[in-house]
């Protein structure tokens, strides 16, 4: 087992990932560029940049992408909840990456769905007689609750207080993410039934492990072959798979703060504030009473999600698209309704201040370390100066740099398109793709870590197909 908490240096690792002064650990955050100095921006400047009505406010007129399904942004949030959870850092102090605990496993293993397993968290799993083959194999849903709420059959399992019985409570913070959690649970249960039918000897924990591997590998395949090409461009993904990772070159999986605190927060620019969840239905406000009421039982049939509406699936519907990826954000995200009036209510400002507190390197410094062309960096910098009204002329916060290069450069080729605003630019794409691919490759239980010749069932080789295969019968 690897030494944790940075007590001993790890041997045999690339200099890109650790040095005697920068040890890394699976249960702590780390740095992708440990030798780059931290940038500092006056917090007053950051507050002004991210303020409601400020330079980042879209005014409610965000343009949509033409290639990114709206559901893919929520899937990105689901991935984030699977690999990171920071409960320790604060805006009010300097946060040390190596001292900040990550309480999720830094692998794409769906521990947000499976928790710590039936021995540690038996309440997540189906109970019954020893003769029941699905004992400790299936996961519970609201349909398992006797005398539940009117919509419990299409909801997560819940305790009397209304809290969801799931591996990560954040996957109940809005109706769409909770419905996605439910869909993954249903997909697991579907796999249990299919595998047991094929091999009746598979029961209980052995059936759980076989089904879990199937679900996790399908999920990982969708991340590598659908999510990353869409968000980062298939050019950078193909280069990483063909030639290896250039910067995330460690021997154990960990979460870099350049990823968690900056690059992977790109989805905050893309989430649409109104979403249609059912065919022919109304588009509801993301923070409204129908879709925004998380951490409580499902109370409205209209919040049951038909995944054909949010992902491109073989059914071929007119799927709504995500907002364009740029330096603009919806006004609702700059006045978060659930943050107290005396708190930092702008999500943009929160991201910027968090980057300051973790002493993230400047965006242009990371671009230079990645050997991006000077003309490209200067092009992004010119637009940063323009957007910030010259409040930021150097030392650009990494998150803002990632958004700006997406706005003015865009993702590498995807389906013959390289439009600005459709996906991440060169720096953001390389960070996101290398880390997510690396987390899979460094996990000996993953398909890339144990069987690189594995291929998924074509019926479930995309996230939309997986989720739609277990759509509610109530739709």
Written overview of the protein:
By secondary structure, the chain is mainly alpha-helical. A two-stranded parallel ribbon has the order 1-3. The chain has a two-stranded antiparallel ribbon with strand order 2-6. Strands 4-5 form a two-stranded antiparallel ribbon. It has 14 helices and 6 strands. Helix 4 crosses helix 5 (204-232), helix 5 crosses helix 6 and helix 10 crosses helix 11. Residues 1-16 have low confidence and may be disordered. The chain has helices spanning 43-50, 70-83, 111-114, 175-198, 204-232, 234-243, 257-262, 347-357, 363-369, 374-387, 398-408, 426-441, 447-450, 463-468, and strands at residues 29-30, 64-69, 255-256, 274-276, 283-285, 321-323.
């Amino acid at each position: 087992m690897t030494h944790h908490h940075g007590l001993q240096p790890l041997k045999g690792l690339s200099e890109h990932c650790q040095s005697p002064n920068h040890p890394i650990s699976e249960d702590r955050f780390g740095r992708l560029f440990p030798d780059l100095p931290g940038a500092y921006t006056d917090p007053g400047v950051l507050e002004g940049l991210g303020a409601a009505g400020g330079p980042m406010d879209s005014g409610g007129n965000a343009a949509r992408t033409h290639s990114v399904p709206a559901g893919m942004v929520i899937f990105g949030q689901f991935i984030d909840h699977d690999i990171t959870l920071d409960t320790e850092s604060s805006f009010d102090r300097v946060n040390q990456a190596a001292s900040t605990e990550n309480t999720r496993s830094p692998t794409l293993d769906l521990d947000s769905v499976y928790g710590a397993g039936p021995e540690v968290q038996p309440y997540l799993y189906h109970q019954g007689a020893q003769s029941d083959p699905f004992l400790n194999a299936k996961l519970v849903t609201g349909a398992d609750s006797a005398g539940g709420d009117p919509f419990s059959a299409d909801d997560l399992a819940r305790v009397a207080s209304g809290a969801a019985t799931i591996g990560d409570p954040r996957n109940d913070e809005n109706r769409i993410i909770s419905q996605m959690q439910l869909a993954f649970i249903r997909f697991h249960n579907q796999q249990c039934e299919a595998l047991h039918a094929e091999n009746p000897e598979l029961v209980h924990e052995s059936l759980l492990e076989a089904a879990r591997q199937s679900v996790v590998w399908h999920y990982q395949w969708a991340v590598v072959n659908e999510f990353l090409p869409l968000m980062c461009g298939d050019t950078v993904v193909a280069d990483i798979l063909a030639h290896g990772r250039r910067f995330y070159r460690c021997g154990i999986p960990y979460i870099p703060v350049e990823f968690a605190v900056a690059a992977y927060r790109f989805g905050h620019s893309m989430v649409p504030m109104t979403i249609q969840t059912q065919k022919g239905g109304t588009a509801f406000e993301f923070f409204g009473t129908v879709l925004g009421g998380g951490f409580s039982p499902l109370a409205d049939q209209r919040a049951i999600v038909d995944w054909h509406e949010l992902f491109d699936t073989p059914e071929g519907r007119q799927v709504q698209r995500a907002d364009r990826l740029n330096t603009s954000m919806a006004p609702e995200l700059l006045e978060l309704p659930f943050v107290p009036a005396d708190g930092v209510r702008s999500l943009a400002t929160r991201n910027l201040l968090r980057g300051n507190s973790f002493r993230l390197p400047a965006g242009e410094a990371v671009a230079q370390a990645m050997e991006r062309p000077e003309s490209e960096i200067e092009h992004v910098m010119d637009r940063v100066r323009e957007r910030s009204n010259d409040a930021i002329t150097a030392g650009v916060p990494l998150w803002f740099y990632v958004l700006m290069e997406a706005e003015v450069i865009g993702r590498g080729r995807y389906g013959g398109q390289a439009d600005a605003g459709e996906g991440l630019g060169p720096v953001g794409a390389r960070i996101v793709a290398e880390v997510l691919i690396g987390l899979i490759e460094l996990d000996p239980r993953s398909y890339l870590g144990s069987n690189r010749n594995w291929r998924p069932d074509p019926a479930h080789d995309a996230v939309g197909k997986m989720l739609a295969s277990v759509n509610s019968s109530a739709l």
